Structure of Glutamine--fructose-6-phosphate aminotransferase [isomerizing]:
Amino acid sequence: MCGIIGIVGKEEVADRLLDGLRRLEYRGYDSAGVASVHDGAIERRRAEGKLANLAKELVAEPLPGTTGIAHTRWATHGAPTTSNAHPHATQEVALVHNGIIENFKPLREELIARGRHFDSQTDTEVVAHLVSELVEQGASPQEAVQQVLPRLHGAFALAILFRRHPDLLIGARLGSPLVVGYGEGETYLGSDALALAPLTQRIAYLDEGDWVVITREGAQIFDRDNVPVERPVTLSGVSGAMIDKGNHRHFMAKEIYEQPVVVAQTLRSYLRRMENQVALPDMDFDLAGVRRITIVACGTSYYAGLIAKYWFETFARVPVDIDVASEFRYRDPVLEPGGLALFISQSGETADTLAALRHARAERQIIAVVVNVPTSSMAREADLLLPTHAGPEIGVASTKAFTCQLAVLAALAANLARVKGRLSPEEEAEIVYHLSEAPAAMNDALSHDEEIEAMAHLIAPARDVLYLGRGQDYPMALEGALKLKEISYIHAEGYAAGEMKHGPIALIDDAVPVIVIAPSGPLFEKTVSNMQEVQARGGKVVLISDAEGIAAAGDGCMATIEMPRVHPLIVPLVYAVPVQLLAYHVAVAKGTDVDQPRNLAKSVTVE
Ligand code: G6P
């Protein structure tokens, strides 16, 4: 993770670098720093903790210079202290890095043996020394970088500043994203187009292994064999306005509330209301020929995939394997050529998911990607790109991206069912109708916000919370538990309701709230039986169901949350709302940092 930005500018850069970091803070926020060249010397300002600390530091001691680099960190090697904060520097060079240099230990030992002194515990500092050594021996910046890059194993996006070349920066990427921005007499580097949005919309995406020399006049890009290459310049279309919270206290609340709108926006590109059909973008492979689907994702996106597994199997009768990305590659999965591998990601940059995608490509799978950032690495490597239109998601806990993923996955499942001959036009029309109703039902779910806020104090004192659900509500239980632990730091577990008796029931007492997700329907009775097993042991239940379900089983619950009665296909979209709101209000009641919870980051670009 980590976010990086660099500017070779006409004017002072410190403020603009800081602004860029604000837009990158979602990538990590445990320390930050900037460096520039001024009067023939490299100057740095770094600070532990949130960006506000670095901003104070820059007020106390302004950083002059028209060429600079900056970094916001999510620690991998070395604690989040000031000395481990980037940029890392020698007298000759300073650099910022996103990724992990996996072979840093032998490189560090080699450098120490040559008499180099290290100031940090990071993996990154070896790169600064390796480049610096060559520069000190008389190499040009280009020669030095060209020699060092092949020595680095792992993943990196780098931006490097040179004391003796105040009008130049060098960037490089392998595994971690890096873009070049073209301005008027200025050139930029950044982890994403969002970081550069106020500076320019003209963006070139570097390919794997590319490195680039940027000056005020422009950029010269080289591929991994050091051959000069051109990369297309596109208009990013990302808004330069600072993303704001509207009239909400947190981005997470704003994003929960945006869901009816962004889900409707997403559905618009997958539903043809007039024809009562589900539509996918054009593809150059035969969807009807797909015999097996492999879904791979991380975190909340993985839970969207788990829900979709029910849909692909129920509607299209296509068997689905599903894995978290960090496990997928290393278990050497059996992948028959021609299978469909489906990757789900908000950012499109999660390192584990991207590595899994490349593994699947090498195994001759067709690559489909459900992604929220259409310019991301995953989007660019897809055979079938299925964008969600959630807009930028800033809160670290994913909310609107999740429900938009569900909307796309439901459309994909219906489409697959149709081409497989398993969905009649009437059934398809019914699906289109119910999906179109989802935004209104989500609005209805949002109207319970105040009630949920009022009951948050019942959960806030708990040390452990259990979430139970059956069928497609089981992954929702997992997502509920993830949301709660991410932002309130309460230990929470999601369990298949019927599996509770095989272990977690031992935890039940009156101090462990149990959240039961049970819309009325064929599985309701069974889930309610499990709920009664909890109540019989003194457990305190919060039941999330519809009016019918609450009338049948609400008595004896600590609290109930009433959802509208909806078609099973859109249950996950609607029930996501109370699950998110509950976690949100508990976190607010506990006073935690809702949008930037400790130790987490929005997109994890290290394996
Ligand atoms: C991080 C975030 C999660 C997210 C996961 C996958 O862990 O904190 O909220 O679900 O990454 O991210 P992706 O961008 O691939 O969906």
The chain has three domains: 3-241, 245-446, 447-595. The chain is about 35% helix and 25% strand.
